[in-house]
Design goal:
278 residues, alpha/beta, globular, 6-stranded parallel sheet
């Protein structure tokens, strides 16, 4: 519905013969395909004068539509609207969590392409038992909840997982990130993820899978680890993080790396793109 509606609005705007239209694209091909996607996307793209895309993967996806118009790549800036960081202890107390455990975080709407089942299978590795390590799953189910509930039972993880099955409001986001040691994004497919930019804001190391543009945003063995989307590699990266005590080193690197993702840089790229419109 967005392709036809926005495409029509843009055509009405263009009738004034002077307005220039730039589209910011963080995903041009849906993760969950449906009939008509490409047709409606083409309808939307035609009146646009230039495109600002947020990952190399989306840049390549956009080019498949044969758009002969200016395109610029500018990663999404940090999400800095969730408040300042607080201590692990304060965040865990707010969430009523034991303060003497380590925590992994899977955050955001739960959809099939995000690979929560891969993370659950990874976390079932016997090497995680007796480590005082818990997995926080924070987000509303947009996929079949029963599938994941059954998987947790089959893997005997009921006592190892803390779930908040609800939409996390902006005011609560900081508690989940600040309570955690490591954010895990085990996506099966992706373009990029806003979770990465929230993790950067709160200086949280990450494990991401090598799909879409996730690896672009997470330099391997610098701010976290990039692995293939399979349970063995995800488990291995988690174990390496804790066994090698990487948390403080990665945090120092994150503080430097996230300087690349400012709103000023996005605005400069947007204005430069405007200058290139014929």
């Amino acid at each position: 519905f967005m392709g036809p509606s926005l495409g029509t609005i843009l055509r009405l705007i263009k009738k004034n013969k002077h307005t220039k239209i730039i589209s910011l694209i963080d995903n041009i091909i849906p993760h969950e395909a449906r009939m008509g996607d490409k047709l409606f996307t083409k309808y939307f793209l035609k009146p646009v004068d230039a495109f600002l895309v947020m990952s190399e993967a989306v840049l390549n996806d956009t080019k498949t539509f044969n758009v002969d118009k200016p395109i610029a790549l500018s990663p999404h800036p940090l999400f800095d609207n969730f408040g300042e960081s607080i201590s692990k202890t304060e965040a865990r107390q707010k969430l009523n969590l034991p303060t003497n455990c380590d925590y992994l975080l899977f955050f955001g709407l739960i959809r099939k392409y995000k690979g929560l089942d891969l993370l659950l299978k990874a976390f079932a590795d016997s090497r995680f038992r007796n480590r005082n390590l818990k997995l926080i799953i924070a987000g509303e189910y947009y996929a079949d909840k029963e599938y994941y509930t059954n998987l947790i039972k089959q893997l005997q993880l009921e006592n190892e997982i803390i779930q908040t099955d609800a939409f996390i409001t902006d005011s609560e986001v900081k508690y989940y990130f600040c309570a955690s040691n490591l954010v895990v994004q085990p996506y099966i497919s992706a373009t990029q993820s806003g979770v990465t930019q929230i993790a950067y804001h709160f200086n949280k190391p990450m494990i991401v899978t090598n799909v879409g543009g996730l690896a672009e945003m997470c330099p391997n063995d610098k701010v976290g680890y990039v692995v293939n989307p399979n349970p063995d590699e995800i488990a291995g990266a988690i174990l390496k993080f804790f066994d090698e005590n990487k948390e403080n080193t990665f945090i120092e690197n994150i503080i430097e790396e996230k300087k690349k993702y400012t709103w000023e840089i996005l605005m400069d790229n947007l204005l430069n793109l405007h200058e290139n419109i014929k």
